Amino acid sequence: MMKHLSLIFILLLMMSCGKDYSAQQYPYVIPTDVHDDLIVGSIQDAGIDEDRLRQAVGRIEDGKYGEVHSMLIYKNNQLVFEDYFQGHTYQWDAPGHFGEYVTWTRDRQHCIHSDSKSFTSLCIGIAIEEGFIESVDQSIFDYLPGYESYKKDGKEDITIEHLLTMTSGLEWEEWKIDLGSIENDQIGIWFYEDGPLHYVLRKPLVETPGTHFNYSGGDIQLLAEILHNATGMKLDEFSDKYLFVPMGIKSNEWWLIFSSGEVQAAGGLKLTPRDMVKIGAMMLNRGVWQGRRIISENWVEKCQTSYSGNQSIKIPGEDMGKVGYGYTWWTKTFNYKGNPVTWFSALGWGGQKISIVPELDMVIVFTGANYNSKVHNFEIIKRFILKGLHDERPGVAMTPSPAL
Fold it and tell me: pTM (2 decimals)?
């Protein structure tokens, strides 16, 4: 009996450990130079422990973190790690939101869901820099002609900044109701005959603008219409001209369009993971890509700094603990080697992330399909990537980092 129990214990222990690849089983390969303006390099030159990444890949392939479709690391101005896995495409009306089962590759576009919100914010920042919009302090109704009937009951006090920080005060429920239900406002907006703008603006004001965070795709949809009316270009046209083309990004596709013609700004963008890395690298470099300024440095600062009152937010289904929220980018400070480091990220449902750690000169990108299960990207970052960083100080021997 004891022999059987011991055997069962050993089997369970082996199952819990996941795959432990050797260098022969999983040889590290430097990312391929495909002439997409991303400089490639090795993890050795970047000071990242190969065994740690091998462990991470093993656990991902073992399904320990649900469906992770890609993991890419950009450090010291180089793409040093890139791997893709198998998993499902996104399909809203399928069980688990799982579409076709595919092998993900560098060339396959991925739905990045709410990362799209962060891209909408970047376009607003560019529009201000280009002179299309005067200021974030303006009333939203300065750029919403035809919707003046809603300019009452306190809604006239909502500014562009309130939309960027999700503090408009408008009633909206997106987190507590399943995204497969029409009762979720982010789904219900698709079924409103008068169009998405009326759907959002007809909502009652339940908080004083600027005082209360409430996660709202509706706020972002208003930003897209403000951009349209200020520039004469819809979000897809503006982002292509002022963001994607200047950065050599050709994979972008705003694939969700309302029947009334508006681009779905809160979650309708597809990109390849490599192009997500480019955006992260540009933000890491304070708004500059290959010597060309894309976003103002001030806007990057607003993205990576929590707005007043937007702290201690717990995101459903995420493993990051409490975070803050700036201009549509999530923020966090945590300990690394006894020192505080900052992290800010575009974040999308299911495990889409563009994570930036300025003090470590690093961008980490994930895509995935954990739509109905917890996302563990931050655990992967802390447990395998950051713990795998070597001491890079001049004159100091390269040794694995101590525990975080």
Answer: 0.91
